[in-house]
């Protein structure tokens, strides 16, 4: 079997990418994955399999580890390496390869569709367990209100920001992409991105808030500490796209609020409708008179509200409020 064919099989490369493989991996990187052959190997074993020097093997391994082409772990006191897959490589490439936006638009669209399907397949059972109230191995996401931001960030010591892989892949909107925050022990030697102070992190989240992005945090953050804050849109965000497909509102992501609108205060300016990610606020067909001027009536459908809370601050008339749900 040719090296490329074996690599495609071992690395889980989708068929439509094969013609474009040189855009993602080099011959040397493919050779390493093929040499590992789905096994966990020490550096000395890799040197023998690749018939190269120890120095060359280590350089290649370090580069492939950074790119998520291989993983490593300690086994019996020795570092061993083993192959990752194309899904993990794509996550790295879309975030940190400056040439990724230059890839053909149709190819990027196909990559997003494929990557989302893989994400859905890997998370469907987790969401089913949440729906069925079964024990799960990690807490689900929860919407974070902007007024709780200070409390979250004051409880962490290390902060790193990286690009949002969802918006980098999907590109369904023009909202900011450098918006994903990792904290403390969730920051690894492959998180990359850049370090932020607490004040810089606060400013970043507030800027994302103004752009209409919702905020999500691990729902057990008050017990186990914050792991991340993601600033999300509903059109690109993989978790929210899957949540809408699965109908997991209130379960994934968790919401702890109920949105209310005081119709007597509403000026029907449409600010909430422009900001709402789920169509809960929308411009209807009816008209109303506000201060002598005719306006299209802004409707509110509570059944479509997911409880992210970003509508409250957008209302100039203070007609929207949130209460504990």
UniProtKB/TrEMBL annotation:
Pfam families with a match to the protein in the record: Fer4_7
Domain 4Fe-4S ferredoxin-type: 257-286, 296-325
InterPro entries registered for this protein in UniProt: 4Fe4S_Fe-S-bd (IPR017896), 4Fe4S_Fe_S_CS (IPR017900), Fe-S_Ferredoxin (IPR050572)
PROSITE patterns: 4FE4S_FER_1, 4FE4S_FER_2
Alphabetic keyword roster: 4Fe-4S, Iron, Iron-sulfur, Metal-binding
One annotated GO molecular function: 4 iron, 4 sulfur cluster binding
Protein name: 4Fe-4S dicluster domain-containing protein
Organism expressing this protein natively: Desulfosporosinus lacus DSM 15449
């Amino acid at each position: 079997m040719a090296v490329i064919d074996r690599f495609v099989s071992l690395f889980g490369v989708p068929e439509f990418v094969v013609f474009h493989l040189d855009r993602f991996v080099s011959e040397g990187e493919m050779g390493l994955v093929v040499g590992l052959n789905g096994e966990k190997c020490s550096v000395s074993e890799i040197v023998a399999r690749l018939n190269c020097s120890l120095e060359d093997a280590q350089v290649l391994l370090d580069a492939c580890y950074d790119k998520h082409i291989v993983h490593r772990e300690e086994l019996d006191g020795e570092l061993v390496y083993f192959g990752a897959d194309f899904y993990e490589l794509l996550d790295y490439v879309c975030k940190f390869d400056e040439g990724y936006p230059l890839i053909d638009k149709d190819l990027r669209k196909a990559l997003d569709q494929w990557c989302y399907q893989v994400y859905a397949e890997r998370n469907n059972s987790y969401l089913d367990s949440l729906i069925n109230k079964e024990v799960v191995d990690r807490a689900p996401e929860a919407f974070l209100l902007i007024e709780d931001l200070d409390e979250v960030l004051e409880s962490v010591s290390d902060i790193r920001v990286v690009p949002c892989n969802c918006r980098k892949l999907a590109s369904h909107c023009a909202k900011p992409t450098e918006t994903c925050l990792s904290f403390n022990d969730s920051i690894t030697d492959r998180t990359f991105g850049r370090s932020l102070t607490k004040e810089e992190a606060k400013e970043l989240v507030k800027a994302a808030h103004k752009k209409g992005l919702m905020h999500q945090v691990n729902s057990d953050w008050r017990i186990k500490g914050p792991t991340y804050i993601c600033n999300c849109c509903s059109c690109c965000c993989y978790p929210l796209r899957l949540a809408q497909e699965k109908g997991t509102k209130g379960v994934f992501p968790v919401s702890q609020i109920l949105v209310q609108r005081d119709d007597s205060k509403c000026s029907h300016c449409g600010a909430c409708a422009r900001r709402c990610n789920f169509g809960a606020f929308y411009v209807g067909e009816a008209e109303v008179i506000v201060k002598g001027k005719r306006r299209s009536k802004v409707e509110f459908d509570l059944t479509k509200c997911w409880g992210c809370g970003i509508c409250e601050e957008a209302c100039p008339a203070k007609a929207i409020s949130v209460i504990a749900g």
